[in-house]
Write a structure and sequence with these properties.
- This protein is mostly beta strands.
- The chain has 2 domains: about 325 residues, YVTN repeat-like/Quinoprotein amine dehydrogenase (Methylamine Dehydrogenase, Chain H); about 70 residues, Immunoglobulin-like.
- It is built from 1 helix and 35 strands.
- The strands form 9 sheets. A 4-stranded antiparallel β-sheet has the order 1-28-27-26, with no helix packed on it. It has a 4-stranded antiparallel β-sheet with strand order 2-3-4-5, with no helix packed on it.
Length: about 425
């Protein structure tokens, strides 16, 4: 039965993207991922790493924290701040996205007090190529039709940016739930921001000041709530989105403007499907509803998908967010509805990516050496001679820095990055690094 199901899926894919027989590739069926519970926290909405500490946003409890050596979770901040997710900037300002419909809070005193700064926020801020902040907003006509808000003062004040109030390509209701950052490159000297959300996909080439619709935008004719930027592999840097519209499918883009359907969506709920890209080119797709839905992965830019089982089946657990941890394992934030066993935080027993340890003394045996590690300034990178560049990713899989290599070597200035843990990739090798400030 599984064999016939795969044939049907392949036929549907060929019809969808117009490929000739023999072009599409496949994967051997992997074993299901095995998960274990982390602590006893229930009803979790989001996860965030800062340096080596894991934060969790919950349904009803204040934000929680899990540090190395801990056996269970504890309250993260002096105040009872409740947030879905967090962003810690170089100035140690903390943003909290409330678990209500929308809203953004800000603290400048380590979470002791909070100030509401953007009530229409739908996403956490991202750092733009110019160093400003951009976040997705509600974007409906009654809220000004904005795609995004932008801040140049560390999140103290925000200005709305987007389409004019109206309908059609000139305005309407994007309601961006995510903003993807394409960093500067030879083909995009100024970088590009791509917003995905309730009204489809839009883009900005001036650091989020003005936005333009793509062919997958239009007054709720398209919904693209799940999206990610691929990290490594053949499709490194390309964007992948789950789009519901005339042809519901995974769509991939190399520039954020032109999108091509590459596969049917294997998950049960397209609106509830989210993506998590990890270094090495792999991307995971998961349902935020229903409970105990399977997780899928793709190694070929979303063209083919493999089912690796649900996160948790001991009790109903609905996956809200999946992130990759410092140890290369997946961590899942789950909510739930069963009394006494409401979701929790879970992680894979085995790593899904290989993250090199930090050698105290660089050796010649490794294909990549990044030192000093930890570092508070300039890094020395030495890689195999066929590696042309080194790319630094944060723990959400987002590219934050890139440098060209000459004969496999380069110096990298990390002064513009906040303290934390990052992954450096050059060629086929990765190494985890810790930056101190």
């Amino acid at each position: 039965m599984k064999h016939f199901a795969r044939i049907r899926t392949l036929i549907a894919l060929l019809l969808l993207v117009g490929l000739a027989p023999g072009v599409a590739g496949g994967h051997a069926q992997p074993d299901a991922l095995v998960w274990e519970r982390v602590g006893t926290l229930n009803d979790v909405l989001g996860l965030f790493y800062y340096v080596d500490t894991l934060f969790a946003g919950t349904v009803s409890d204040p934000s929680q924290v899990f540090r190395p050596g801990d056996t269970d979770w504890s309250q993260a901040f002096p105040s009872n701040a409740s947030a879905k997710d967090l962003l810690i900037t170089p100035e140690y300002i903390i943003f909290g996205l409330a678990h209500s419909a929308s809203g953004l809070g800000r603290s400048v005193d380590g979470g002791q007090t909070w100030q509401d700064v953007e009530e229409d926020a739908f996403s956490l801020p991202v750092v733009t190529p110019e160093g400003a902040f951009a976040l997705g907003t509600r974007g409906s006509v009654e809220h000004g039709g904005t795609v995004a808000a932008r801040s140049e003062d560390g999140g103290t004040t925000w200005s709305d940016h987007g389409f004019a109030v109206g309908s059609g390509a000139e305005g309407g209701a994007l309601g961006s739930t995510a903003i993807l950052v394409m960093p500067p490159s030879p083909s995009l000297p100024g970088g590009r921001l791509v917003a995905t959300g309730f009204g489809g996909i839009a883009y900005s080439d001036d650091d989020g000041r003005t936005w333009y619709p793509t062919s997958l935008y239009g007054d709720l004719a398209f919904v693209a709530l799940g999206s990610a930027r691929l990290v490594g592999g053949l499709y490194d840097g390309q964007l992948l989105a789950v789009v519901d519209g005339a042809v519901p499918a995974f769509y991939r883009s190399s520039d954020g403007i032109e999108w091509n359907a590459v596969a049917e969506v294997p998950t049960a709920n397209r609106h509830g499907t989210r993506l998590a890209a990890v270094p090495g080119g792999r991307v995971y797709a998961y349902d935020t509803v229903p409970a105990s839905a399977p997780v899928w992965y793709s190694d070929d830019g979303g063209a083919t998908w493999e089912d690796v089982g649900p996160v948790w089946t001991a009790w109903p657990a609905t996956v809200e967010e999946i992130v990759v941890g410092l140890d290369g394992r997946l961590y899942a934030a789950c909510s739930g509805t069963f009394a006494g066993h409401d979701g929790g935080v879970f992680r894979t027993v085995e790593p899904v990516i290989v993250v090199a340890a930090e050698p105290a003394v660089p050796t010649e045996e490794t294909g990549l050496r990044v030192y000093p590690n930890p570092s508070s300034g300039t890094l020395t990178i030495k890689a195999e001679h066929d590696a042309r560049e080194a790319v630094v990713y944060d723990l959400r899989g987002r590219e934050v820095l890139r440098v060209g290599l000459v004969a496999g070597q380069a110096e990298m200035d990390t002064g513009g990055l906040p303290a934390g843990v990052y992954v450096v990739r050059a060629g086929a090798f990765t190494q985890r690094i810790t930056l101190l400030k």
